[in-house]
Amino acid sequence: MCRTRGCYSLSNMRTNEVMVRLEAAVRALGDLDVSAWPEDTLKEQLGELSAALVAIDAQLTRVADEVRARGLRIEEPVPA
């Protein structure tokens, strides 16, 4: 049986883990600079890169749609 407090802690821990992983993915994408790749390398990797970009786009769209479905807006952070 699940206790409310225990479930909340577990859920919060999972949420924090997901946010850490999401931030790591953003950093990884920030490190990607295809403009520095040689043309041959880009052509060789284009299929995999395209598949990854399409998959990322689909997941971002899904998450954004789920947020919007709850009546919330996704806004760009205001720089400090």
What does it look like?
The chain is mainly α and 80 residues long. It has helices at 4-31, 39-69. Helix content is 74%, strand content 0%.
Query: Mean pLDDT, nearest integer?
Result: 88
Stretches with pLDDT under 50, minimum 5 residues: none
How would a textbook summarize the main sheet? none
Radius of gyration: 18 Å
Structural class based on helices, strands and sheet pairing: mainly alpha
Order of helices and strands: HH
Strand content: under 5%
The outline comes out as elongated
Would you report the number of β strands?
0
Compute the number of helices: 2
Fraction of helical residues: over 70%
Question: How far apart are the termini?
Answer: 45 Å
Please tag this protein with its features:
80 residues; mainly alpha; 2 helices; 0% strand
Short description:
The chain is an all-alpha fold.
List the helices and strands and how they pair.
Blueprint: H1 4-31, H2 39-69
